[in-house]
Amino acid sequence: xxxxxxxxxxxxxxxxxxxxxxxxxxxxxxxxxxxxxxxxxxxxxxxxxxxxxxxxxxxxxxxxxxxxxxxxxxxxxxxxxxxxxxxxxxxxxxxxxxxxxxxxxxxxxxxxxxxxxxxxxxxxxxxxxxxxxxxxxxxxxxxxxxxxxxxxxxxxxxxxxxxxxxxxxxxxxxxxxxxxxxxxxxxxxxxxxxxxxxxxxxxxxxxxxxxxxxxxxxxxxxxxxxxxxxxxxxxxxxxxxxxxxxxxxxxxxxxxxxxxxxxxxxxxx
Length: 269
Known about the structure:
The protein has 10 helices and 4 strands; from the N terminus they run αααααβααββαααβ.
């Protein structure tokens, strides 16, 4: 059974010119930890009341739970492999792994009996990434891909939660922590912390598809807004304006696209 069938069944049942960002990993992790505590602290009884009669919310939270299962298992396996993660980075991934486990437990508690079971995973994606747990650079590529995918996935589902403010708030708390994870992984890799279709760092291109829009709300031309402000200091203002614009806004991904990207890593349901 593939991921599309899983969620179909659930729905039926329930109806380099830039300066680097100047912060340290330690500060980033400290901020992340505070955010994670805030998420775990929200009473699940409040959530249960909020979505009790809302199958849309159940579907969104189970979708989130699938991705958190994937991330939590990925970091658990990576940390089990002796010599894979350098000691200098090990604490970072221990923290990220702890956060992902907290997210899993939180979502399972909120969903109760409606929570999907943990599936089996193949982090080689059928052999596409055979060295994921023996080569640190491959591990980092997938870590970046999973975190960036999670950020876009949460963002894509936010509109479906607009009628349930408590649930939406919880999802946003997890969303921002995932974004901090992604930024920290990018720092480890020596990349800029924001996403770009032009700089995937070797991660699957589908994770960043449609990320660099030059318009917002289908009408606001961001290039025309930015260009006049930099024309005095740039030799090619339009090119620089485009680079600024395409990285100033993160775009969502639909559930269908997220599942298509995640499917190769999920082997049982």
